[in-house]
């Protein structure tokens, strides 16, 4: 089966060109002007932007957390993703206490197998660092899981010594580590102080996790990584102070990769003060920040100081959020966003003049593919790459709403936000899976093994 996508504006991280795209046997067969393929189905892409399939490299589907399980499993979460133009997720498999890495990965593979509407891979979160876990790393990397996650807070946080040991063990293997950077001790102290003042609602959440908690943890992580002599990924950067720590390290020659999320670019901490417990909808960690932080992140994104924009999609229902009434620390932390990410970045990045289309493709496709060992199979419109293609309608207009989104969450953090653009047609490895904004071929995603970081 051949498909010829005719006359659209193809977008790469290096520029744009009106050209044709020939898809054959699941791969991109050719790129050029007026391609000749008489036996191909022709898709008229005039007036459309033709994008490589977009990658969300930070999601949490079917995750047990805070005494509950996220609202979205792989069936609902990937349905939302593909309808938003995201053709590949890198989700977080987690090694629970007492498990081997292989057992943790196996549990997540079982959750996703046959249920995903986009392609998927896994980072592996290390919760318990033991000698046998160290011994598993080489085989784990050989099997195509080349990125790992460490937490500096929460019940599965690791110590500074363990961070150093994990980084050192992965150095000869070519694996890379993303780290949730918040100072756990500061959070505990601030939480106690906030509660002592009688603050129990969502407004206490940002007070308990100040920007200094992120900045100090980033500073400490980068000191450890410098000593181990390896690059690291700072995930979901939310603050100007944290950005300044990264700038200082880079100025000294250190390699640091940085991710942020739409919520830190578009939402602010005043949401936590909304009445009637509505602020609970926005509880995520790190929390939403100030307008000054947002501005700093936009500027860094435009300047290429931030490498990727992922969602940290971690969805709950309002009933699940209600578990924290009377104690903000019991509100499950996380928000949906996997479906909205591309429209939000297109509207408030590209249409607002903050980003160009090539920059959008770089941050949402090419860079995550390189960072996590998927390039050039994913992340680019090039001969030989997977035929993951999004026909983006730049003229579509919509208003985001829980009534129309496809997440299992029953609320929408961007409720009422006007957006432009839509993933009108989506091809996954050459198969049309979304047509006119409707999912027509669900559960066709496959598991991906990965190589080393090439960013």
Please characterize this protein's 3D structure.
- By secondary structure, the chain is α/β, with parallel strands linked by helices.
- The protein is built from 13 helices and 19 strands.
- The protein has helices at residues 74-83, 101-112, 131-142, 160-170, 184-196, 204-208, 211-228, 240-251, 262-266, 291-302, 318-321, 341-350, 357-371; strands at 2-12, 15-24, 27-32, 41-44, 49-52, 54-59, 64-65, 68-69, 86-94, 119-125, 147-151, 176-180, 232-234, 256-260, 308-309, 389-399, 418-428, 431-435, 438-439.
- The strands form three sheets. Strands 1, 2, 3, 4, 5, 16, 17, 18 and 19 form a nine-stranded mixed β-sheet that branches. An eight-stranded parallel β-sheet has the order 6-9-10-11-12-13-14-15. The chain has a two-stranded antiparallel ribbon with strand order 7-8.
- Helix 4 links the parallel strand 11 and strand 12.
- Helix 4 (160-170) packs across helix 7 (211-228) and helix 7 (211-228) packs parallel to helix 8.
- The longest helix is centred in the middle third of the chain and has 18 residues, at 211-228.
